[in-house]
Amino acid sequence: MSTTLSSSDLDAPERRMYWAIADSLTIVRRDLTHMFKQPSIIAWQLGFPIVSVLLFVYVFGSAMDVGEGDYKTYALPGMFAMTMAFGFMNTAMGVTIDKDRGVTDRFRSMPMAPSAVVTGRGVSDTLHASVDLAVLASIALVIGWRSNGGLLATLAAFGLLLLLRFALIWVGVFLGLLMPNQEAAGNLFAVAFPFGMVSSVFTPPSMMPDWLGAIAMWNPVSSTANAIRDLFGNPVVTGGSWIEQNALLMAVVWPIVITAVFFPLAVRKFQNLSR
Amino acid sequence: MVSEYSVLAEGLRKHYGDKQALNGFNLAVPRGTVYGLLGPNGAGKTTAVRILSTLIRSDGGSAWVGGFNVAAQPRKVRRRIGLTGQSAAVDEILTARQNLRMFGRLFHLAPKEVKRRAEELLEQFSLMEAADKQAKTFSGGMRRRLDLASSMILAPEVLFLDEPTTGLDPRGRSEVWASVRALAAMGTTVLLTTHYLDEADKLSDRIAVIDQGRNIVDDTPAGLKRVIGADRVEVVLVDAADIPAVVKAVARVAGDTEPDVDADELRVHAPVTDRVAALAEVTRTLLDEGIDAQDVGLRRPTLDEVFLHLTGGSTVTPTTPALSKEELVA
Question: Model pTM?
Fold first, then answer.
């Protein structure tokens, strides 16, 4: 061919780290372009929590009494946690579409850093979640929610939310690789819904039937929700069980456990593509 | 390692559960040729391409692409290949230009090169007008051309095309064929899988017929047709009731050979040696008996027949693919 194309050799060891980062950034750039080209997706993702806020706070709100403070100061931090919990579906959907369309195979047949596909997605999904949180928090401020915690506590609370979302990326990658096609990935909502709702998001587990309350209490979403309520200085309603007393600890432990379980699973699933 | 072969495979084996997808597959693709891998669905074509393009590992045997071992030096191989899989692997949300630039960056071109190469490929694959449109708005043929362009970023030594026209309408198909011919003319070695016989016939310099995980023959398209031998006389009828009479007439001119009958298409055909006399004889019979025909003529054997002959007739693929509804909307 007449054109000569030079391409840096990834095999040189000192260049590997450089290209692993550069390739990840290329993938992040791609995912962010997706976000800007499809603002409707953000609207969709936030649609459910926003409608839930309106429904629970304004429609059922007068009948909702958790015993402490204004219901919306209880429900809104829950909503933040629920949005993070549902986030794994976005990851799964993106992973499934790439696999289904052959984009994943194209990446794997290229001389790029193999880890970049996954790390790129991790970074862009976390950025995406930050945008989600910023929008939700703004809406919450408008309807009267306030953080009474200090600046550091407030930032720590948002950090815990992103930590939960980050841990769930590996669940999303794993499930996304497991799903045969886009339709199946869409059905993951059936998993996400109870995962998000059977928790302390809208109602304190202590007010649920015992068996359901026990499940809700041990749901990682509950730990994050209760921990951030505490950090925001919003009402926390607990039945005094160990898991509820140690929400702050568990809001860190749960994401670590989830990552420890699902990161290897996701990596193995990814490697299995070459079998 | 400099080799006269761009792709070399020796005794490749791969199984999935009980199914032996590849069972001693061999291949030697000379530099700069277009090589067709022809076989029915499930014959192992895709498995072979996925092993050669480093996507999956073989259970046994060895393969070299561009002089490098696919199992031991996958990264070296990846810098020398382009892959166009069964579905057009482009990012549908991004525009054509954004796709090419993204893949250019991932192929580690310098930033200036990334832009220059994208423009070059948009031009080469006639995508300039659609450059800033999202790929999801593209027709099947355009999407496939963008897919091919993405495979060509590094001007690879070997291009793998796995059923590149499956699901395309006739226009998309001819667009892709034109692109493949252009690439081959520039010296790229192309390994093409297809279950469309006319596609292999029109594009390939050589064809390997693969069935049940191993190649059963390896020849030029003309050579393959010689396997079946002589030209054939063929009658396509209007009325199925006339088939027995025409079979008799064709059998008379075909010597010992029993004519082949395709009842669905009302086709009767058989190999003949004395071509013109045979044609005249059959035509006279039709006239005498007042039998109407859609078509009467002489033709070279199609690859269908070669294929049936070689595989023992278990699988029939029409020469001109009949598009299903699904394929038409795709």
Answer: 0.81
> Residues 42 to 81 of B: which have CB under 8 A from any A CB?
53-57, 75-76, 78-79, 81
Across chain A, mean pLDDT equals 88
Inter-chain residue contact B55 with A8, CB threshold 8 Å: no
Residue A162: pLDDT above 90?
yes
Q: Could you tell me if the ipTM is greater than 0.90? A: no
* Token pair recorded at residue A59: 């429609």
Residues of chain A whose beta carbon is less than 8 angstroms from a beta carbon of chain B are: 1, 3, 5-11, 19, 22-23, 26, 29-30, 33-34, 37-38, 100-103, 105-112, 116, 273-275
Q: How far is A202 from chain B (nearest CA, A)?
A: 36
Q: Which residue in A3, A105, A111 is closest to B155 by CB distance? A: A3
> Pairing between strand B34-38 and B206-211?
parallel
pLDDT exceeds 60 at position A10: no
Q: Tell me what pLDDT residue B318 has.
A: 39
Contact A269, A261 (CB under 8 A): no
Residue A143: band (very low, low, confident or very high) from pLDDT cuts 50, 70, 90: confident
B153: chain A residues, CB-CB within 8 Å? 5
Are A19 and B113 a contacting pair at CB < 8 A? no
Q: Write the single-letter amino acid at B170.
A: P
CB B196 within 8 A of CB B40: no
What gap in Å lies between CA B126 and CA A20, rounded to an integer? 33
Cβ contact B241:B268 at 8 Å: no
Q: Determine the straight-line distance between the first and last CA of chain B, rounded to whole angstroms.
A: 43
Q: Which of B56, B90, B188 sits opposite A274 (nearest CB)?
A: B56
Angstrom distance (rounded) from CA A226 to CA A251: 8
**Torsion, CA A7, CA A10, CA A14, CA A17, rounded to 10:** 110
Q: Give which of B67, B62, B56 is closest to B11, Cα–Cα.
A: B62
Q: Does B212 touch chain A (CB under 8 A)?
A: no
Residues in chain A: 275
Contact call for B89 and A102, based on CB within 8 A? yes
Contact A5 B109 (CB under 8 A): yes
Within chain B, residue ranges assigned H as helices are 45-52, 74-78, 96-106, 111-124, 140-151, 170-185, 197-203, 221-228, 243-253, 275-288, 303-311, 325-329
Q: Is the pLDDT confidence value at B2 over 90?
A: no
Nearest in space to B245 (alpha carbons), one of B287, B279, B299: B287
